[in-house]
Specification:
Oligomer: single chain
Structural class: alpha/beta
CATH class: Alpha Beta
Order of helices and strands: EEEHEHHHEHEEHEH
Number of helices: 7
Strand content: 25-35%
């Protein structure tokens, strides 16, 4: 389905985003009178159909924020596992998607935030470190922000790192990454949660933390 112009009923459409010779499948949903828009950047082995991301996206739309869920790689690219962990490639791809998004009539003028998971969080922070990206806020859920390396110090968008309390190694990596951030930032630990937040109630806790941060800054 082609994109429709945002109006009284908002925007909801399956779209194809052209990026550097590739075509990426995406779902764009913007509620009526949206205050901003959040781009989801999934990690390795996930897609725009991830139930966890879909859950968070619904929560954000209920709070008046639009969402864009897209596949960072097309099917052929995903067959090369090296692409899945190439943070520079993913960050560049995300930057192209952000540039495309700003040309869409339905998204015109809306501040944009990023929600990243796993390696997608590193790509989100890398892309946000480019001042031209004009990113209003970043949230990482169970992410690997450490993989953004030296780009962390260049991030200016308020950044929230959400980590499961039982995800010990990733928690250490997030705390180390937070020490390199010079922007406003916070680390929130969800007690009893492992890496995928599969324990009862933990995904909901993480989603509420993400929603509150994004509603605060993406307006």
């Amino acid at each position: 389905m082609d994109e429709v112009t945002s109006g009284d009923n908002g925007t909801a459409a399956e779209v194809v985003i052209p990026v550097n010779g590739a075509a990426l499948s995406a779902h764009l949903a913007i509620p009526p009178q949206a205050a901003g828009l959040v781009v989801f950047v999934h990690g390795s082995g996930s897609s725009r159909h991830s139930p966890r991301n879909q859950y968070v996206a619904r929560l954000l739309r209920d709070a008046g924020l639009g969402t864009l869920l897209f596949d960072l790689l097309n099917e052929a690219e995903e067959n090369d596992r090296g692409n899945v962990f190439d943070i520079g490639l993913l960050a560049g791809r995300l930057s192209e998607v952000l540039a495309w998004l700003r040309t869409r009539p339905a998204a015109k003028g809306l501040p944009v935030g990023l929600f990243g998971a796993s390696t997608g969080a590193a790509a989100a922070l890398w892309a946000a470190s480019n001042g031209n990206a004009d990113v209003a806020a970043v949230v990482s859920r169970g992410g690997r922000p450490d993989l953004a390396g030296a780009h962390l110090a260049e991030v200016r968008a308020p950044t929230l790192l959400i980590v499961g309390g039982l995800d010990h190694t990733v928690l250490e990596l997030n705390e180390a990454a937070a020490a390199q951030l010079t922007c406003e930032h916070a680390v929130e630990i969800v007690p009893g949660a492992t890496h995928l937040f599969q324990e009862p109630g933990t995904l909901q806790q993480a989603a509420v933390l993400a929603r509150d941060w994004l509603v605060r800054y993406v307006r």
